[in-house]
Amino acid sequence: MSDLAEVKAVARKAAFARRAVAHRVCAPGAAARLSGVLAGYRGVPVSGYLPIRTEIDPRPAMAEAAAHGVVGVPVIEGAGLPLKFSRWEPDCALREGPFGAMVPEVDDFIEPEILIVPLVAFDRAGGRLGYGGGFYDRTLEILRAARPTLAIGFAYGAQEAAGLPLEPTDQPLDMVVTEAEVIEFGRT
User: Fold this and answer.
1) Do residues 57 and 32 make contact, with C-beta atoms less than 8 angstroms apart?
2) TM spans, by residue (predicted)?
3) What's 169's domain CATH number?
């Protein structure tokens, strides 16, 4: 394991612990804050995610966005591949996908222009530490090469960390929405 991989593993472990505590406390207002951000983009195709483990839950904001346009969720097709996004609607039939994440039972792929991105940790410069598979980094790189694509990190404020171990291939976030604030990074 490289030194950077070891540093990332330590950072992830600490961030998972902070996220678990924040998850137990709950995050009132986080989904409403995310809905408020998405309201400025009505009708633009959005990708959210169906939360696993202690991830903050974007489904209330996704349901509101689905009333105004297309919403998808990520589908992992294999290691080293970019994500695809299958159309999601509240109460749609689901099946289990890789890593325990649920995905729509029937694939109906869309191409989002806004991605609500789960994360393990974020910093005030738009850096994001994910799970280590590189799925969002690969996907954002491809989408951003084709057209402007907004990456919104959705997290508990406790997931903020300084000095994240980042690599040149890590795609930056355009903003982060937490239960307490919206942090914009000015890249859009």
Assistant:
1) no
2) none
3) 3.40.50.10420
How many domains is the chain built from? 1
Strand extents, DSSP E, the chain:
46-47, 71-75, 84-87, 94-96, 102-104, 109-110, 114-117, 121-122, 128-129, 150-154, 175-177, 182-184
C-alpha count within 13 angstroms, C-beta hemisphere, residue 41: 25
Q: At what angle do helices 30-38 and 59-66 cross, to 10 degrees?
A: 30
Kindly give, in sequence order, each residue whose CB lies less than 8 Å from that of residue 181, ignoring residues fewer than 6 positions away. Answer: 33, 157
Is this structure's pTM higher than 0.85?
Answer: yes
**Amino acid making up residue 67:** A
CB 149 within 8 A of CB 140: yes
Domain residues for 78? 3-184
**Two tokens at 149?**
């694509």
